[in-house]
């Protein structure tokens, strides 16, 4: 499947395009700003654009009002169709954020229940108790997402709710030709719903991708041949930065071996989980790392490990932003035009190496050399073998191990390397060695 070889570029449109924090109801075609980013994304080497919520909502996009209409703060459906066409014309695929577990209080069906109470034909679309109340004083209690009463949980066992959402997805394919969905809080979606969704979307496009947002637990609860194709790899997300901050690369090596290693008990061997260093919900990697010199190394590790690598808009040139700041705008800022620097150059090399390497897309995983400050691991298929080497130390390191051959090509520089006398890793370095077979 195409997603197995993808490099994802994630955009939070309400932020990047500078939309007001609350829905002011004033139409403005801000989404057309994305047209200025198309060539940048292509030059970076990404081939898939993931848009966080774009449809009409109360505030941040995850509080949907209308699944069928673009948020007026971003423009019209016709505006977004232009953006999607430009991306597709550039050879990029498009994925949307599917927010199906809950809606906002401004969702049209919930507004009907507020007005008509038990006489509303939509009362069973939600989990409602007319004998209770909430802090919003609607005169009834309703189940919300994880206690956030601005997010009203939908009854995904109700056939009319499912039909309404599936009609919306069909419209998104017809109007925008989307290629897949990120499923918000997929860990909250019932398995029967995920199976229905997978079966339905396959009728729209046989290679339509479902990638679920999951945090912890066994990812196989939501990922299988009948449910999500992929899920977010939050376990490795944490290790990708904390291993560098604590100078303990054993942490990320343990997670990778646990998930993808050669043992029979390995959890997700052959799976293509979404790998990421940051996103719209967490502190940006440039703010998360203690030592800025580890930033390119963290990207090299992420692009070299098993999975589908994702880059969050702005982070490719080192944009900073801390979740502790308490403002959505810090993590989801307005950025008029993309930038390019040495880090962006480096990531473009990594994307090229990843996309062009069978081993980096599909290869097995095995730890070869591991210390607190250095890691070398092997990615291997029947046709190719690549070693990924990271030295997080300020000092050079000489790695002695049986490379299995004498010569290798360095994928990021094209240089040939002789492994006859071991290999010296320069300080703060990352290398991808394609080994002779």
Automatic annotation (TrEMBL):
Q: Which domain of life is it from?
A: Bacteria
Query: InterPro entries in the record, alphabetically?
Result: GH, GH13_cat_dom, Glyco_hydro_b, O16G_dom_2
Keywords of the record: Glycosidase, Hydrolase
Q: Name one Pfam family in it.
A: Alpha-amylase
- GO MF term (any one): hydrolase activity, acting on glycosyl bonds
- Every copy of the Glycosyl hydrolase family 13 catalytic domain together lies at 10-354
- GO BP term (any one): carbohydrate metabolic process
Please state what the protein is called: Maltodextrin glucosidase
